[in-house]
Amino acid sequence: MLREPLDPEKYRLRRQRVAGLLADRRIGALIVGPGSDLAYLAGYRIPTSERMTALVLTADGGAVLVVPALEAPRAMAAAPGLELRQWQEADDPSVLAAAAAAGSGDVAVGDELWAMFVLALQNALPARRFRPASEVIRVLRMRKEAGELLALREVASSADRAYARIRELEYAGRREDALASDIAAMLRSEGHEEVSFTIVASGPNGASPHHHSGQRVIEAGDAVVLDFGGTRAWYCSDITRTVVVGDPDAELVRVHDLVRRAQEAGYAAARAGARASAVDAAARSVIDGGGYGERFIHRLGHGIGLDGHEHPYLVSGNDLALELGMAFSIEPGIYMPGRFGVRIEDIAAIGPDGRAEPFNHADHALATVR
Amino acid sequence: MLREPLDPEKYRLRRQRVAGLLADRRIGALIVGPGSDLAYLAGYRIPTSERMTALVLTADGGAVLVVPALEAPRAMAAAPGLELRQWQEADDPSVLAAAAAAGSGDVAVGDELWAMFVLALQNALPARRFRPASEVIRVLRMRKEAGELLALREVASSADRAYARIRELEYAGRREDALASDIAAMLRSEGHEEVSFTIVASGPNGASPHHHSGQRVIEAGDAVVLDFGGTRAWYCSDITRTVVVGDPDAELVRVHDLVRRAQEAGYAAARAGARASAVDAAARSVIDGGGYGERFIHRLGHGIGLDGHEHPYLVSGNDLALELGMAFSIEPGIYMPGRFGVRIEDIAAIGPDGRAEPFNHADHALATVR
Q: Is B2 within a domain?
């Protein structure tokens, strides 16, 4: 819940751009709740709860923040320039939000708005068609502003510095969850304000891409997938490196090299104008060519910003063309059930020369750890 | 993401009870996503993400878990006894969920399911009426099982032990956020597995009930509202005490005493058969009588369990009758803008004698701290 320096003008400009997009798309009102959309459009970051907080933007430029009365002092301080409409504990806040959204055109609701609020709004606005707000908001959020790119670069550097220290830890004989705690502490001491996840997936656990670090004791010879991230000044980091405890076996070396080359192919393909699906395909073809195509079981990457995963997604079927300022992960992986996994992940963004510029610079080699 | 001991039978029985309730209410299918509903009905706890995970329960007893293929190994291990339907990265998972929900009757969706999934399901099931799943699920979740009450009692004791140590900290001259870090560490060392929030609201900051601990340096004479909680074995704690740095002024003593008496009135009114609104009113009338009615700006309490806030809510307008096994907070407060706040909060549950039994036993007095 740490805050960016308050810059009301930045948020006002973003809301103005949204209003323009609403008019173009015959959307009368856009409604978002707590989370990254509210942070992006109002500079106001609070946990989601059963008490409705909703920002209602209308095509004519209206900007109303519906808040529980007991949050009003915080909201007023954190999100200046909005018209606040407070509700008391026994009120129905969806009535206030619906009134702010009154008029014609579709109603667009934020991706992460809770179902309980969506249903209440649909009841309160029965004649309106509801559609996803992300089709509008992602147009803005995908193309990062200079300040956002700087924040992403800084939090990525912080993760890089943590990795340099994480490589020096002792692995053999320790539990995954103990290492995960060490990683969290290092992220914090290198400048992260929040730690979102710390995956330590050793040996066979590495074959599950989202393994939850557990009680397994790491052994000599294990490959260990380290995937961790968090936030600094609201923006997210996300980096993966795979290390080996002592001497790697020959297949691990071969697989790691293949994943590294797939990532390089992803970097080479990630140019302004390239389709997201084509970047995924470029990396995938390297792994296919090496004979491990069936073991690369997820998309190549995801956008990153205020959310750890956001548009654009580098995935088969996504025809979106990459543009200047888009930031995303490039993270091929190979997963060998019962044996090991390898994944390498950087954050990168399309720079002024049209190429994908890495924000992570931590060594990509298969590091040998103790 | 820590796990309860696996007990597939417990979850099967809960799902069976849900199926019975669906049939009674002409609901054909109930769909919940990651979060407490999924944890309650399947024993499977994962972070919410843009990749759809959905449990679809049907009135005929069907139980299908739609999962991203890359999560399938984890899902299979964590939630046995469900029919898994996996989707690949380029698939549309709402098609799978809609197929599992096919048939007649309304579709009930979990309170916290994201709008992006609700809209996709509504598109995939255009002829069905959507309504909130909580009307069904809360019937079960409000009436805690013995194991749940034990978990709530244990995590409350852990918070009590932390408070005993927190009282001994040094306050004067320290920043709120430094104290908040100490509180988090003490919760962990006393048995919490996750820390969800640590509010340290000193002096005038205490007048905002959800103040975010910040840079204010605590001074002699300050009232300090300490409100903190987290989880152990998935169940939540939530406790508030107000302390004073050195000698309190006369009004603070008077206000604290009034809040304490309001909490006692809440305890006395919280009996099996009493309406939730009547419990709120009983505590409120004490504060009204003391002349501070306008300064008690929130409901008296909220249910607690797998979520920090859940049904039943002790709030004006809620006619629900309390029953054996319902667990909730009792937390009156008085907020004096620009000056100070006082809140006292315990977790309690309706016991076999029909009375509200406290789960928190930490001293309620206005403690003097250094």
A: no
